[in-house]
Amino acid sequence: MSNEKAASKAFKFHDYQARLASFKNWAFDDIEDSICTSVKLAEAGFFRPYPRKRPDLAECYICLKPLEGWEEQDDPWTEHKSHMPTCPLSKLRDKGIDVNNLTVEQRIKLELERGKFLLHRDYQDIKKEFEDRIPEVRSKLMRLT
């Protein structure tokens, strides 16, 4: 999936109900006293991008941080914050703001922040591709001398 398609897909997950629906048949929903439920994950800004290929993967719709290896007693907000302390969604929650009931202005600001994360991810992908080609190009240059 191209980054542009992924960005568009993630945009729909501004909606809590869309995030919740992505966790259909979540493994821990049927376990009594489980903390890591689909409801808690969706409330924490996560959606499940690849339910069939990687059923344990959840990704924040703002910071795009993918997390997997969930256990039934994991608290999604705690995990979110520990793995991505700079996430603007977590920062809003820390200020006491209901992140699932945002104003239009708050959503626009979050979308701007999400754009920064998308640009950073694209930059990292391009940088890695460039760095991966360095040995090959270096070898070709050495053969020319």
TrEMBL record:
Pfam families: BIR (PF00653)
SUPFAM superfamilies, alphabetized: Inhibitor of apoptosis (IAP) repeat
InterPro entries referenced in this protein's UniProt entry, alphabetically: Baculoviral_IAP (IPR051190), BIR_rpt (IPR001370)
Single Gene Ontology MF annotation: metal ion binding
Record's keyword terms, sorted: Metal-binding, Zinc
Name the record gives this protein: DgyrCDS4147
